[in-house]
Design brief:
The complex is a heterodimer of chains A (224) and B (533). With 224 residues, chain A is an alpha+beta fold. Chain A has three domains: 4-77, Roll (Ubiquitin-like (UB roll)), CATH 3.10.20; 90-179, no CATH class; 184-217, no CATH class. Helix content of chain A is 38%, strand content 12%. Chain A has ten helices and five strands. A five-stranded mixed β-sheet of chain A has the order 2-1-5-3-4, covered by helices on one side. In chain A, a hairpin with a 6-residue loop joins strand 3 and strand 4 (60-63). The longest helix of chain A has 16 residues, at 164-179. Chain A is flat and about 70 Å long. The model of chain A has no long low-confidence stretch (mean pLDDT 97). Chain B folds into two domains: 4-40 and 316-429, Succinate dehydrogenase/fumarate reductase flavoprotein, catalytic domain (Flavocytochrome C3, Chain A, domain 1, Alpha-Beta Complex); 88-314 and 434-499, 3-Layer(bba) Sandwich (FAD/NAD(P)-binding domain), CATH 3.50.50.60. Helices cover 33% and strands 19% of the residues of chain B. Chain B has helices at 4-21, 30-40, 64-70, 99-110, 127-130, 145-155, 162-170, 172-182, 214-228, 297-304, 336-339, 359-370, 390-396, 400-404, 406-413, 470-490, 501-512, and strands spanning 49-51, 61-63, 73-74, 88-95, 115-118, 135-136, 196-197, 207-208, 233-234, 237-245, 250-257, 263-273, 309-310, 315-322, 344-345, 377-379, 382-387, 424-433, 436-438, 451-453, 458-459, 498-499, 520-521. In chain B, the strands form six sheets. In chain B, strands 4, 5, 9, 10, 11, 12, 20 and 22 form an eight-stranded mixed β-sheet that branches. In chain B, strands 14, 15, 16, 17 and 18 form a five-stranded antiparallel β-sheet that branches. A three-stranded antiparallel β-sheet of chain B has the order 6-8-7. Classes of the chains: A alpha+beta (224), B alpha/beta (533). Chains A and B meet through helix 1, helix 7, helix 8, helix 9 and helix 10 of A and helix 6, helix 7, helix 8, helix 9 and helix 15 of B.
């Protein structure tokens, strides 16, 4: 007999196998998920969830698809959170400190409570990446926020109303576009292709009979 | 937290590690690969397939679960939908909010079209978001589009449509540059040179990556760009049927608000199907690495409207899905783990194959190890083989795993498995639909002149197997092209009166072919809810 635990979805008690994740336990209980379910493998942030273990004071945040159920778990999924994304034309921006002041000025209202970091389902140092953003250190902000899945648990807990995932995203786009050096070999290859340098060669390989292609493929040299 | 039996087997893996470090297992010959695939690849298991009875592919086979959906009727059959009440009226309707749909929408918008995205979950809830390993492009000095073509063509068993594959490889560098200029953070060295690795079946190191969040980094950037452009995105709303006009053109879609169950009508001069894959149909009871909405909806919509499928009988099983622990069963373990040096090792500690064979060959080889050869490691829900991840730290130096594949490290640490110190257990997982709706090189279906398809819903780009890193590439290349082509085409399309007559015709054809069905499709969401009564 499989070990069962009691969990409470939106306050209602269900007995579910202890081996399940919160997400699969909800389905075991009979829920057909619409909101609160996306990639199911920890990459999309759709299943932001808040829970408390009965008798304990601490309020926890997690991804429902990546978290195993525990006995006495009171669970509420967060179907949507009004994260505040500002719109901009990326081509008009420049990676200087002013950008954040203009687009996300509320980051300067951070009171340093660190609730964002404690809430992060990816164990990122969220408050630190916001601090980098405040100082215009976008590359560091990008690196520190890179593994963010945008679940928004940080923003749910923030007393200053900061939309942390959006700040990290902006820093990453600025870094990718402006700060990291351009790949010269890539730009060269794009130019060569646009200049038609490969047109004839690709046409030739497309026209080759299958037998010749098999021969070429089976004997091709593989880079070490 | 491994079982005692697993820990015993790990000792054997550790015992052979030093010796294996210095060797490269032999690659199989073409004949060996053919024989292995025929005997062990799930595509060759006849009981997994069923014949399609009607439509353009009648007489051909498809996975039984897909055939059942093709043999089902529209949920709109017999329903009165007022097609004169138009809720959305656009030039370009993009169905699907993944990488292909977002790329298409951006390019259509760039071309000045009035474009909207409709998606049954959220924008970005897509397989794109979960692609870990990387994206291919021949942009290094020792590489060329021809070399890329050869690798992909051979890896796909010489079945790719040349005009599609040509586009894929020739426009690959441009796709990377486009993404980079949107702000995607590719792994680069301090001079800006891309850090590239091998994937299974590549002859040059052309795998570009963003750590092991490659798809996520691409998807969140594209989503941000869609939102910056204020392109309307209608979420939690699925397309349940294509609309046509009396001239036989595509004319939009009937939508279903997933939360209120209300139907809506979207009229459009061009329609792009970008609905992605089918992993959640769990062909042959395989677990899947796919997202929740991967139920082949677009294939059903397109087929019912008359568009043919291509290679619908070929499925990609990713060789390294999680075999243990059960909470993450079937989740993807990126091929990059092998690119970085981890070997596939059986229960006895033997490296039974070269770790970078193509995916179909690797999957078949693992299945052989776990069945006929009896050298798999038993798990509570099946079996698996070891992926010897500590080798990565030995080869690349301490810290390589955390730096290059942080998502994998995090996923396993959740369950107290430290892949830097212990190997992990893997078994093939249902990963990708090689086939799909047939298109020409310009992205249009061949029978409906203003219906386009992009991304995983397309068949023929890769042939009968796909190389790692060519899917992230195809959603960008074919997504962008579809967006541009749809915007241009919309200028010349004149729509007539809207009709759903094709769903009635389809029902009649089913009936007259002897297929009596109560089934309804597309599926929209998998049936995971357990009900005791």
């Amino acid at each position: 007999m499989e070990k069962m635990v009691d969990v409470y979805f939106f306050g209602k008690k269900y007995s579910v196998p202890a081996s399940l994740t919160i997400m699969t336990a909800m389905e075991y209980a009979g829920y057909t998920l619409k909101r609160g379910c996306g990639c199911r493998h920890g990459f999309c942030g759709a299943c932001a969830t808040i829970y408390r273990i009965k008798g304990k004071n601490e309020l926890k945040t997690c991804l429902a698809c990546q978290t195993q159920v525990e006995d006495g778990m009171y669970v509420a999924s967060i179907p949507f959170f009004p994260t505040d994304k500002r719109t901009y034309e990326i081509g008009d921006l420049r990676p200087d400190q002013r950008v954040m002041m203009e687009l996300y000025p509320e980051i300067y209202s951070c009171i340093g409570c660190n609730a964002c970091t404690k809430a992060c389902t990816q164990n990122l140092n969220v408050m630190q990446y916001i601090a980098y953003a405040q100082r215009g250190e976008f590359e560091k902000c990008a690196e520190e926020s890179f593994d963010c899945v945008g679940c928004g648990c940080c923003s749910v807990r923030c007393p200053a109303g900061i939309s942390h995932p959006m700040v990290g995203l902006l820093a990453r786009r600025l870094t990718g576009k402006y700060i990291a050096p351009e790949a010269e070999h890539l730009n060269r290859r794009v130019e060569e292709i646009h200049a038609g340098q490969y047109d004839e060669l690709i046409e030739q390989i497309m026209q080759k009979p299958i037998e010749e292609m098999q021969e070429l493929y089976n004997n091709r040299e593989i880079e070490k | 937290m491994f079982t005692p039996e697993m820990l015993e087997s790990i000792k054997k893996v550790e015992a052979t590690r030093a010796e294996r470090m210095g060797m490269e297992p032999r690659r199989m010959t073409a004949e060996e690969k053919d024989a292995l695939l025929k005997q062990y690849h799930p595509d060759y298991r006849e009981e997994g397939f069923a014949e399609i009875k009607i439509g353009p592919n009648a007489g051909q086979k498809a996975p039984a679960e897909l055939t059942a959906l093709l043999h089902s009727n529209s949920r709109l059959l017999g329903k009165k939908i007022d097609l004169n009440k138009i809720d959305y009226d656009v030039d370009v309707l993009v169905i699907g909010g993944g990488g292909a749909g977002a790329s298409a929408a951006i390019e259509a918008h760039e071309a000045g079209a009035n474009v909207m995205i409709v998606t049954k979950l959220r924008i970005g809830d897509a397989n794109t978001m979960m692609a870990e390993g990387g994206i291919q492009a021949a942009d290094k000095e020792n590489d060329s589009p021809m070399q890329h073509y050869l690798d992909a063509f051979g890896g796909g068993h010489f079945a790719a449509r040349p005009e599609l594959l040509r586009r894929l490889v020739m426009e690959a560098p441009d796709a990377i540059q486009w993404l980079n200029r949107l702000g995607v953070m590719f792994d680069k060295d301090e001079t800006g040179r891309m850090v590239t690795t091998h994937g299974g079946g590549t002859s040059r190191k052309r795998m570009h990556a963003c750590k092991d969040y490659s798809g996520a980094e691409i998807m969140r950037t594209l989503r941000d760009e869609v939102l910056n452009r204020k392109i309307p995105v209608v979420e939690f709303t699925s397309a349940v049927e294509l609309l046509k006009d009396e001239k036989g053109q595509a004319a939009g879609a009937v939508l279903l608000n997933m939360e209120t169950d209300d139907y809506l009508v979207a009229r459009a001069k061009t329609v792009i199907i970008a609905t992605g894959g089918a992993g959640r149909l769990h062909y042959q009871n395989f677990p899947t690495s796919n997202h929740y909405g991967a139920t082949a909806d677009g294939l059903i919509l397109g087929y019912r409207a008359g568009a043919p499928l291509l290679y619908q009988d070929t499925i990609q099983y990713h060789p390294t899905g999680v075999a243990y622990p059960s909470q993450i069963f079937g989740a993807l373990v990126t091929e990059k783990v092998r690119s970085l040096g981890a070997m596939l090792v059986n229960a006895e500690g033997e490296a039974f194959m070269h770790p970078l064979e193509t995916r179909d060959v690797a999957a078949a080889s693992i299945i052989r190890e776990c069945t006929d050869r009896g050298k798999g490691v038993t798990t509570p829900i099946g079996s698996g083989v070891w992926l010897d991840t500590p080798m990565i730290e030995l080869i690349g130096g301490e810290g390589t795993i955390e730096k290059r594949i942080p998502a994998m490290l995090r996923m396993y640490l959740n369950y107290d498995i430290d892949m830097r110190k212990q190997p992990i257990l893997v078994y093939p997982t249902l990963h990708y639909q090689n086939g799909g709706l047939e298109i020409g090189g310009d992205g249009f279906t061949k029978v409906i002149g203003n219906l386009l398809v992009a991304g995983e819903a397309v068949g023929g780009i890769h042939g009968r197997n796909r190389l790692m890193g060519n899917s992230l590439l195809d959603i960008i290349v074919f997504g962008r092209n579809a967006g541009k082509a749809a915007a241009a085409k919309a200028k010349e399309v004149e729509l007539g009166a809207l009709t759903l007559k094709h769903i009635e015709d389809y029902a009649k054809e089913l009936e007259s072919s002897g297929v009596h069905t109560d089934g309804v499709s597309p599926l929209l969401l998998p049936n995971y809810a357990r009900h005791e009564r």
